[in-house]
Amino acid sequence: MKAFNIIETGKGLDSWSRVDLPDPTPGPGQVLIRVKAVSLNTRDLMVISGYFPIPPKENAIPVSDGAGEIVAVGAGVTRWNVGDRVFGSYYQHWQNGQFPADAELHGLGGPLEGMLAELVTLPESGVIRVPDHLSYEEASTLPVAALTAWNAVMESMPRTTPGAIVLTLGTGGVSLFAIQFALASGLQVIATTSSPAKAERLRSLGVWDVINYNETPDWEQEVLRLTNGQGVDQVIEVGGTGTLPKSLKSVRSGGLVNLIGLLTGFNEPIDTSPILFNKIRLQGSGVGPVQMAEAMARTISAIKLKPVIAEVFGFEQAKDALAKLQDSATFGKIVVRLD
């Protein structure tokens, strides 16, 4: 089968190498999936750069997110049949409950083999049914970006109630999914972006107001103006230490900031006084367990949500897709189609 391997971290795009590997076979309790599409995440860039806290094993198959068709099942499999359309859970052994201390040891596309291969085997408990209205390309965007956004918007406690205001940053996959889930839940959304063209696309999704951070570098002041000086109820913070101080000034007293991404850095000092004096809840957020992914998929199916895809690449152009992600100028998800 055709696949990619991570041959060495720290080499950027050259960390990936196109290889041919023997076809895998499913063991007991496993399903064999013919992968139809994968989508890329910032995590994939962190892995090849050596910044991810747990390095990949030698010659690991990269990419955590993928969807495909089950083409064989191992002994003892009862949940799935040949022909079922599924996507893989990022955390393969976290079914439900609190975040396990060893969860990152069981993540696809790093510690475990990833999805950028024609065929992969996964435990039957580690896959989720694809909503019928989604293509494989669309379904491949769900495991990390969609579930991270779902976890922040739909699972944070106390849950944000209809009419509340959510602030999102940029137009990456997590932010766009957060917008879609928030709007579907009756929340209002303010979004930041870098260009008038992207602002118009955000408005077309139903975003209440958009702030161009290139034209308005002190965007936290504009957020306060739009909210009559009160601030938003929740911030989906994907930037890291470069944007976190502004997010802390944008949220209301007692509000919630979900720290999800590190796009602008992670080791710069920040002023923590707003957290203390305004009683802000700063919460690290990320991907959820299998049962949460199943609940998300059911809702996506019920409301017929369609993921926003920026561009689809062919398998042989997978490194070009990774370069596109590295460019950070996209509106939506970067997808690689395998057939």
CATH class of the largest domain: Alpha Beta
Number of helices: 10
Mean pLDDT: 94
How much strand content do the residues show?
A: 25-35%
Protein name: NAD(P)-dependent alcohol dehydrogenase
InterPro entries: ADH-like_C, ADH-like_N, ER, GroES-like_sf, NAD(P)-bd_dom_sf, Zinc_ADH-like
GO molecular function: oxidoreductase activity
Organism: Lichenicola cladoniae
Written description of the protein model:
This protein has 339 residues and is an alpha/beta fold. It folds into two domains: 2-144 and 288-337, Medium-chain alcohol dehydrogenases, catalytic domain (Quinone Oxidoreductase, Chain A, domain 1); 157-284, NAD(P)-binding Rossmann-like Domain (Rossmann fold), CATH 3.40.50. 27% of the residues lie in helices and 25% in strands. It has helices spanning 42-49, 136-139, 142-154, 173-184, 196-205, 219-226, 244-250, 273-277, 290-303, 318-327, and strands at residues 2-6, 16-20, 30-39, 65-73, 85-88, 119-123, 127-129, 165-169, 188-193, 209-212, 232-237, 251-259, 281-284, 309-314, 333-337. Strands 3, 4, 5, 6, 7, 14 and 15 form a seven-stranded mixed beta sheet that branches. Helix 5 (196-205) links the parallel strand 9 and strand 10. Helix 3 (142-154) packs across helix 4 and helix 3 crosses helix 9 (290-303). The longest helix has 14 residues, at 290-303. The radius of gyration is 20 Å and the shape is globular.
